[in-house]
Amino acid sequence: MTRKVIRATCPHDCPDTCALLVTVEDGVATEVRGDPEHPTTAGVLCMKVSRYTERTYHPDRLLHPMKRIGRKGEGKFARISWDEALDTIAARLKAVAARDPQAIVPYSYAGTMGLVQGESMASRFFHKLGASHLARTICASAGGAGYLYTIGARIGTDVERFQDAKLILIWGGNPIASNLHFWMRAQEAKRRGAKLVAIDPYRSLTAEKCHQHIAPLPGTDAALALGMMHVLIKEGLVDEDYVAKHTLGFEQLRQRAEEWTPQRAAETCGITAAEIESLAREYGETVRRGDAAAIRINYGLQRVHGGGMAVRNITCLPALVGAWRHPAGGVQLSASDGFPKNTAALQRPDLMPAGRSIRTINMSTIGDDLLHDASPDFGPRIDALIVYNSNPVAVAPESSKVARGFAREDLFTVVLEHFQTDTADYADILLPATTQLEHTDVHSTYGHLYMMANNPAIAPLGEAKPNTEIFRLMARRMGFDDPCFDDSDDDLAAVAFDKTREQAVHFDWDSLKRKGWQKLNMPDAPFADGGFPTPSGKCEFFSERMQRDGLDPLPTYIPPHESAASNPELAKRYPLGMISPPARNFLNSTFVNVQSLRHTEGEPHLDMHPHDAAMRGIANGDQVRIFNDRGSFVAKARVTEKARQGLVVGLSIWWKKYAGDGKNANEVTSQRLTDMGNAPTFYDVLVQVEKA
Ligand SMILES: Nc1nc2c(c(=O)[nH]1)N[C@H]1C(S)=C(S)[C@@H](COP(=O)(O)OP(=O)(O)OC[C@H]3O[C@@H](n4cnc5c(=O)[nH]c(N)nc54)[C@H](O)[C@@H]3O)O[C@H]1N2
Ligand SMILES: Nc1nc2c(c(=O)[nH]1)N[C@H]1C(S)=C(S)[C@@H](COP(=O)(O)OP(=O)(O)OC[C@H]3O[C@@H](n4cnc5c(=O)[nH]c(N)nc54)[C@H](O)[C@@H]3O)O[C@H]1N2
Ligand code: SF4
Ligand SMILES: [Mo]
Description:
Layout: E1 3-9, E2 19-25, E3 28-34, H1 47-50, H2 52-56, E4 66-68, E5 77-79, H3 82-99, E6 104-108, H4 121-129, E7 133-135, H5 141-151, E8 167-171, H6 175-178, H7 180-191, E9 195-199, H8 205-209, E10 212-214, H9 221-234, H10 240-246, E11 247-248, H11 250-258, H12 262-269, H13 273-288, E12 293-297, H14 307-321, E13 330-332, H15 343-347, E14 360-362, H16 366-370, E15 384-388, H17 392-395, H18 399-406, E16 412-417, E17 429-432, E18 441-443, E19 450-454, H19 467-478, H20 489-494, H21 509-515, E20 517-519, E21 539-540, H22 544-548, H23 568-573, E22 576-579, H24 595-601, E23 605-608, H25 610-615, E24 623-628, E25 631-639, E26 647-649, E27 686-691
Parallel strand pairs: 6-15, 7-14, 8-9, 8-12, 9-10, 11-21, 12-13, 15-16, 16-17, 22-26, 23-25
Antiparallel strand pairs: 1-2, 2-3, 4-5, 4-17, 18-19, 19-20, 22-27, 24-25, 24-27
Helix pairs in contact: 3-19, 5-14, 9-11, 9-12, 9-13, 9-14, 12-13
Bound molecules: ligand MGD (2 copies), iron/sulfur cluster and molybdenum atom.
């Protein structure tokens, strides 16, 4: 028997980007474990990925190209050859491109976060074709925008420092489920005497384990942060020296914060003024003592109308009190801008047809866009869609419209997938893609500071091919002869990071492949002495860029699109707020088809407060229908005080075909967008619930 251990990387859309060791026996992957030497992974994987071989060798893996033989959405396919698949695709795309290549739209997100199997060869292909651009907004662009206006780049406190903090605010995140290796650091901080505070409308697994849980109404975090600023300024907890040297607009901020008394903020947030006062005092006093106060913002709080502003306001707090002076202080939303990605080398925007402006389709409104006719504003109707690394029919908002769009008979749809997902059911041509164990990749991350390598552990299963290879073959069929379409996956990985930039001067693909991971060159406390990468070089309490973009240049509160306070008319019919954050055993919609993980989640649930349940005659375990004007879905009620009164929680994202009624939470979510970043508002939803 031959036995080897391969260095790999978890490809999933998770901040932890774990270093994996894959055991291969006689060409078969038999075990996937966490690398004990990698500092953030520390030998630990989440349940999902420790079961990785179950996913890779799943009996439902797509192993051959297929063409649709039933109705769209029905999921009936027949096996075809790669030649037939590629010939069909090339013929259809050429016909559409002859009219207008912008009628062709790529649709992809972070099924894999790899820089090679994500947007490298695929982007080259679409650039050369002159296809529409896709704005990849579905997850993080609202919070990202708020952070960028304030701090200048998505750089923050190193996750490896959090154990040294004395106070950690876990704000809009559920790290036990979705950021486990940060939670391990927070636990270590707790053992060393730190206090952990969760700020979350739902008593999540994480909130249950923190010392304190503050439960604001969804979409009101911006007001909470303003109330904290009010207290910090009024009680003299501001670091005047830091503010004078490294921030912009304090005087205007002071006036704005003055309006946000703890009473006013508390009313907006549905919590008590005392909670806001004591949180602000504890935060300010921790820093004043010379200890570290750290904030981990996660994306849960920015999936609402004012999500960008909420992140912006929270991001002002560390500069106000000087928390950045300590390497364990400050804030982390994302670490992604620490990585000097060489996007131009990977994606080759120079291949785009010269002198033509190309429209952008927002992935978060794909429902409306697929149903849109040609118009001068919109451009051509979407005639062809190529989906990879994403499952829009399950994950995109206002799903009934998404499904109607995908069902259009005149739309040509190609899906590259591991499994026959809800989206794959609508494909005209379905292509089998390799998993992380079968292909090469290189990774940046958004939760730690290591460049990561993924070596293939096993040969591709069946006739599966890497995304890169599929786009190479499609390029050849389209007659694209630029030599860049011959680049191998190793060639692509070798140019992934820009070695002229300080953070990655030591990047070398051959050695990274052998070692598995390598930390970026980054300062220990990134903003201890200011140096913010904003236009002013300061943390911008006042932002001219925001003013230019038509936003309030100062921290403010933007109410939800749908809440009892902001839309009382709608709330008469649909009185309950609904959020649908990630379930622990799924990763977005990935893993829902892995039986052991699905069985752990059970079935689609809806958590609701005993009072809200009793008013509707609903008992624990009843099947309930959740509905609004956009649609409805069915789930099993769990009557629990984890959901605050007035709020229901449906952990997600279920494949529709595994739900009793063939629907999921996105039936009721809306396509309305956030205040900045054009992101979806998944957690800004009003519904009614009744016994099914
Ligand atoms: N197991 C698992 N891990 C995952 C994922 C997964 O699906 N499953 N998804 C991955 C992806 S793509 C992402 S983007 C990250 C997301 O990871 P997180 O940012 O941690 O986001 P969520 O888990 O969506 O939300 C975290 C918490 O935010 C709360 N929340 C909802 N609305 C609000 C609000 O208005 N204010 C506040 N303060 N809190 C609110 C929710 O109740 C939830 O408990 O996780 C990644 N990791
Ligand atoms: N209601 C509700 N909706 C949400 C959210 C929510 O919290 N609530 N969260 C939102 C968020 S944060 C996000 S990020 C999006 C996520 O939405 P998506 O990015 O669509 O994520 P997944 O659902 O995990 O789907 C990824 C797909 O990519 C496939 N895949 C993985 N690797 C490869 C590969 O190498 N090649 C190919 N061809 N395919 C591959 C997987 O099999 C999987 O089906 O969903 C959003 N939707
Ligand atoms: S999903 Fe996240 S926690 Fe789980 S192995 Fe991957 S990177 Fe690590
Ligand atoms: Mo996400």
